[in-house]
């Protein structure tokens, strides 16, 4: 049975006090999670330890970092290594988010290095992929996403790849006024799963968790999560509002 995940990516938002209140509101919302369901919270780096302490006794809750360095250690001022994240109990690390690719020029090769470091330190990557508007309009989105997967993940043996979570971001539908339909989400998720099956076999593909990262909210989460190949969501803005985030979790 595939793991179903709702992950909240806070990005660069909230003070420590606001973040603590948000987590407490979510933890105390009375969410009932099944064994194959999980809530992942990804606060900014300074709040990771606090977030871990607030959720560590709540069944089904996990903590993610929003990024990590591509090097193991050394003279990289301002960077945070995978080993550091492991040492404070981080469970997941988001890699390759569209904002990291666009604003910080993260390449597929760089993300391959980060993926290796996250896995080597016993954490699970949430690997983001997805196409911008120009690629979607050209109709080449499948090839574009397949290349992201191939160049960043396909060097992994099946045992290691099976620990990865994929998050599909239709970048063209985020903050553009355009909307990705549930069918468009399902189509890409199914395509990703088919590509994984071709590379690693059907069993690995059928156990792979693929999240939707296209501005899911309470009003569309249930429709999205009902899609056969959509296993949850990587939530942005709605993760900053306890009522919205918990409503999305309840959409399971």
From TrEMBL:
Q: What is its EC number?
A: 5.3.1.1
Query: What is any one GO biological process for this UniProt entry?
Result: gluconeogenesis
Where are the active-site residues found?
Answer: 97 (electrophile), 169 (proton acceptor)
The principal localisation class reads cytoplasm
Write out the GO cellular component annotations: cytosol
Q: SUPFAM superfamilies, per this entry?
A: Triosephosphate isomerase (TIM) (SSF51351)
Q: Where in the cell is it found?
A: Cytoplasm
Q: Which keywords does this Swiss-Prot/TrEMBL entry list?
A: Cytoplasm, Gluconeogenesis, Glycolysis, Isomerase
Q: Describe the reaction catalysed, as an equation.
A: D-glyceraldehyde 3-phosphate = dihydroxyacetone phosphate
Residues annotated for substrate binding in this entry: 9-11, 175, 215, 236-237
GO MF term set: triose-phosphate isomerase activity
This protein's pathway: Carbohydrate biosynthesis; gluconeogenesis; Carbohydrate degradation; glycolysis; D-glyceraldehyde 3-phosphate from glycerone phosphate: step 1/1
| CDD domains for this protein | TIM
**Keyword Cell wall biogenesis/degradation attached:** no
Q: Which superkingdom? A: Bacteria
According to its UniProt entry, the function of this protein is described as: Involved in the gluconeogenesis. Catalyzes stereospecifically the conversion of dihydroxyacetone phosphate (DHAP) to D-glyceraldehyde-3-phosphate (G3P).
Q: Which family does it belong to?
A: Belongs to the triosephosphate isomerase family.
Q: How does it assemble?
A: Homodimer.
Q: State the protein's name.
A: Triosephosphate isomerase
């Amino acid at each position: 049975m595939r793991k179903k995940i709702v992950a909240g990516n806070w990005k660069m938002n909230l003070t420590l006090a606001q973040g603590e209140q948000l987590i407490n509101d979510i933890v105390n919302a009375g969410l009932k999670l099944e064994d194959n369901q999980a809530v992942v919270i990804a606060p900014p780096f300074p709040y990771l330890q606090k977030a871990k302490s607030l959720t560590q006794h709540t069944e089904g809750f996990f903590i993610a970092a929003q990024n990590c360095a591509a090097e193991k250690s050394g003279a990289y001022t301002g960077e945070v290594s995978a080993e550091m994240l492991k040492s404070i109990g981080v469970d997941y690390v988001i890699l390759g988010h569209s904002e990291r690719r666009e604003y910080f020029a993260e390449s597929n090769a760089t993300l391959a290095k980060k993926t290796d470091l996250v896995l080597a330190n016993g954490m699970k990557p949430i690997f983001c992929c997805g196409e911008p508007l120009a690629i979607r309009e050209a109709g080449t989105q499948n090839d574009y996403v397949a290349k992201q997967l191939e160049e960043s993940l396909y060097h992994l043996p099946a045992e290691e790849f099976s620990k990865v979570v994929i998050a599909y971001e239709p970048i063209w539908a985020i903050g553009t006024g355009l909307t990705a339909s549930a069918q468009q989400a399902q189509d890409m998720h199914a395509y990703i799963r088919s590509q994984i099956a071709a590379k690693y076999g059907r069993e690995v593909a059928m156990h792979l968790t693929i999240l939707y990262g296209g501005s899911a909210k309470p009003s569309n989460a249930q429709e999205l999560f009902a899609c056969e190949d959509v296993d949850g969501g990587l939530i942005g803005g709605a993760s900053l509002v306890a009522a919205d985030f918990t409503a999305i979790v309840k959409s399971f």
